[in-house]
């Protein structure tokens, strides 16, 4: 799926889309101009309803109306007068006397509003309604239905049950009979991306800047006839991107992942800490690290909180977790990569075996995945309505799948595609192998979540603890007490037991060809020599990936609040 | 206080301290050597108790002993056999037959252990104890009391009530009768900083590297005769720094601040979001911003999440908060400054007035300050035992102090020190003025927490909304709907209403001499033009400062997990 998106639509489709987009824009512009003329023609001074509508930052409402959020409206409000602040999402004119609007708030709560003129007749013939009835003029109806979509407005209205349920709105059994309406913040007549376009699946994830001759936004037509926008257009219209219910739902799911991670660990006596972003050495390999000038020295942006989690253990914190940004200076322009993402990390003392760490990590991930299904059912449904996906298969309790790396490679050789007949037990897996294995495991064990344990030392960093039993695989390569976790065949977590003995650590550092006296490494090693450090292990979860792969999104960029890629730093 | 610390002790005192430190180190070294000799002289093979002690990564214990954490030990364990993993903090030999140890775990939980030889007689005369009694030799007693302090050990023991309470330990009504003891991770014989030194107040906060002739650690003698260490020594011995109960307590308090911040806001429907650290423009002024090479362009580290919080509001998120790192490339080597710190930020839609924002921020800060007193009473006590402070005075509910900036300046002129007789209502305050005002407010209103509102526009950034009433102060300077919050006379929060109208915003950007088409500013302004953005406001709290000033710590560096200063990036 992601390959299709990365490649994008054909040139012909793009040309057609461009032409269509231009036409749409022109049409919208003209409509806006017409409306502007109409509105300016209304002489508000003459209007008996003039105090009941307009554009203001400080509307006054009657004291007896309750301010209420859309999401809180329920049948108990039937017949009550309320004040609602919301986005005007749509409007239409039924007649000169009557108009409809659709209001949206709280991400995804929508309701229908209607406005009906109470002043009968026109011009000199017009008659005010009876005392106590709201004064609503035809001009007021015109004003309200001419408000630019996505403007932020405040209305006073009476809540009533509609004659029949309003299917197009989430709140379908109530509607608002508008008596006052004020624009608090007007959207422009033409939006850079409409709500309809923003609510379509993103058409193209390439973050290449469009070439000069392609400057008109690429918005290939989606199936329903509404043009879909590229990721570039989405990010260039960041507010509209975020207002779409699908992005609201993804953001809510992302927050819930963090909340579930935190609550599970806090219940198990993990304590939060904050690792630094600015560090003094490219400790975990210098290749993909951002460097910056720092008061005459050089500083680096942390690629992971690894060393700092271990310092916390050395410092007697027992069980720690952190949630924060990590950075990779990798020039990879794919829907799988970002230069800044959020790590959910933990580290803990080990009592008897590193499998205690696997159990906590498996526990927290299952808590997250099960928790999302329970708490975010609505949000998942919204995401699926835009990005369809198969149900995420979770293992039954007690039937969690943990495979050793060598077992997994064997499975891939025997049951995977032809091209993986010769994968080795002593070499790391490629992304393609991982995905193929995901399919094999799903078919065999009926789960999209599993653990690969005992990675060969060739595939792990110097701090990974080698298996005590001295097990070897392939060409006499020792295995480690280190593991990866997968969602839908894609890695979301790396972890393992760390070496806590300074002699063993120095030996492994040298064996990996790293200078134990190099900056950063020296200070790391020193900490283990300075004090006794208990046996420990941990893991790091990529938050963006958990969200993206759980929802089977076509790009991890959709899961981020502000995706950072080699070509994208704004907004 | 901080000036004293920044200046540090006199040269003479330092020389004396150096000599003392050298002497102490030598003494410790010799003691360690003696112990090492003793231990190696023990021929373990001969010892009938040899399976009950030693150095191992994988001790085996009897199956009937329960593994328990020190903090969970209560009277219900009296008489039970338990396994405890902990730091050996201290030991002493009572006789050849008997020794005492002090174990520490969970930051600050300590208990006394004793080990008593059950094998009677010596050499050929020795007799094993009766069947069922633990086999403990004199060699085992010697081994245990010779373990280097701060080693991580596991013991099997019977929990018993001591003859009289052990005053030196937090768990004073229970003690451990040790039957097995294994060193899991040995500390070296000489620690770079002892626990006693680490538990003293930091002697010197300067982060200058010591000059060549001063290379011996500066550890001026504290009152109790235990040498205090400089911040340099603390950070160079990061694990020992963290193990001290005072730092454990500060870390626990810091975590609680975040938890209280989050829970208060989540209950009020604020949603978390994650602003980026990497940004494409030095949007809020280029002076104190870190720059880095970014795939052929330049990237910057965010100085605040300001613009991104506003994008969330534009994107329909209503009420948001974030907790994360922010960066200042300020070459300030003071106990008040760091280059990386944690911001607690929020932003919210405004319905009627920006005072709604003040109320939420005042609410969350009071919730934090009151919450700390309730939930962290023990931790606060521990911190005060090292860094004494006056009670933090909180206003009674309903008597919160909000002063306008001009009122505060008047107060300072009239009731403050002589030097501030001429402070102006249209110029920002200095740190010295703030502190002086803190004293005046404390004396007058009996509170260490208060709000200054309506700052003059000269003192605020371009996005600050000017007061609607057109109020001016001093030399015809308009005031803004912007405010600061103070703890003990030191600023911990800046906030206010933001301009949400793009025309007004552009005007203010120009008035502040900023180019509205410069990178970052252009994209910021564009967002307001692209869509209607509701009235909104918010604020940013400095987490490190809240912790430091609430506890009246001599330096904000003590509140951070890994303080980053112009001269300190490691560990």
Which SSEs are present, and which pair or pack?
The structure is a homodimer of 571-residue chains.
Chain A: H1 2-7, H2 11-41, E1 53-55, E2 66-67, E3 81-95, E4 98-105, E5 109-116, H3 138-145, E6 152-160, E7 175-185, H4 195-198, H5 231-236, H6 238-243, H7 245-267, E8 271-272, E9 278-279, E10 291-294, E11 297-301, H8 306-314, E12 319-327, E13 340-349, H9 355-375, H10 377-386, E14 401-404, H11 405-415, H12 431-445, E15 449-453, E16 472-473, E17 477-478, E18 482-487, E19 490-498, H13 502-511, H14 521-530, E20 536-542, H15 543-550
Parallel strand pairs in A: 1-7, 2-3, 5-7, 8-12, 14-15
Antiparallel strand pairs in A: 3-4, 3-6, 4-5, 6-7, 9-11, 10-11, 12-13, 13-20, 15-18, 16-17, 18-19, 19-20
CATH topology of the largest domain in chain A: BirA Bifunctional Protein, domain 2
Please give the most extensive interface between any two protein chains, plus how many residues each contributes. Answer: A-B, 96 and 96 residues
Individual helix count of chain A: 15
Strand content of chain A: 15-25%
Question: Nearest-angstrom radius of gyration of chain A?
Answer: 29 Å
Specify the helix fraction band of chain A. 25-40%
Runs of chain A in which pLDDT lies below 50 for 5 or more consecutive residues are 1-9, 212-218
Structural class of the secondary elements of chain A?
A: alpha+beta
What is the CATH architecture assignment of the largest domain in chain A?
A: 2-Layer Sandwich
**CATH superfamily placement of the largest domain in chain A:** Bira Bifunctional Protein, Domain 2
The count of domains of chain A is 3
Q: End-to-end span of chain A in angstroms?
A: 27 Å
Identify the overall geometry of chain A.
elongated
Strand order of the largest sheet of chain A: 8-12-13-20-19-18-15-14
Give the oligomeric state of the chains in this entry, treating copies of one chain as homo and distinct chains as hetero.
Answer: homodimer
Mean pLDDT over all positions of chain A: 90
What's the count of strands of chain A? 20
CATH C-level name of the largest domain in chain A: Alpha Beta
- Profile the largest sheet of chain A: 8 strands, mixed
